[in-house]
Amino acid sequence: MLYDAPIFRLMGDRSLLVELGDEISPVVNQRVQELLSVMDMRRIEGVRELVPAYRSLLVIYDPLSISADDLKRSIRDICQYIDQADLPEPRTVEIPIVYGGAQGPDLESVAQYHGITPQEVIDYHIQPTYRVYMIGFTPGYPYLGEVPDEIVTPRRETPRTHVPRGSVGIAQKQTGIYSVDSPGGWQIIGWTPVKLFNPGGKPPSLLVMGDRVRFKAISAKEGSQWQQ
Predict the structure, then answer these.
(1) Class of domain 92-225
(2) Signed CA dihedral, 99, 217, 209, 34: sign only
(3) Are 135 and 141 within 8 A, CB to CB?
(4) pLDDT tens digit sequence for 173-187
């Protein structure tokens, strides 16, 4: 549900969490994106960083430049004009995926969990056009949603200490791509040769909040020959 008015939560002495809804949904997430856009345009004195998430915006500020109460008032005022946000047309990015095998070690177990075949898991996974809800966890990591109900799968009971860059996973209704080598507890069903994070790039992240993603199944041979 989208809130009629933002809910504020203090996060320490220099961060304010602005909650705009109580669920993961495209409507709530777009409102977060709109607030981010308008606040970035307004440039409130004392605001140092804006960090968007599924249903909230974290505002990091300098308490010597603006008080929490004044910041709340400014944000409430901005919310009156949030419909004026000029969001860019979302890009649709196609991401090739090598499913199963050594690069998708949990594909079989996801299929068994749902009583379907690995190919059916793949078919369901490539079916939607996914929204990039947020970038987080590690630099460039996209949280995408939502997967079809037929493959909604819990996280692994025991996380892995090392998940390779490019691994594609499922956790509940979310799917995502590991942008760098890291620990992780998602069900890994495939791998992409596409590099999602380049620290020297402008911007460094291939995907941004609001983008759309389509997955395309490719063979292991095609993955090894992939040229970005």
Answers:
(1) mainly beta
(2) negative
(3) yes
(4) 999 999 999 999 999
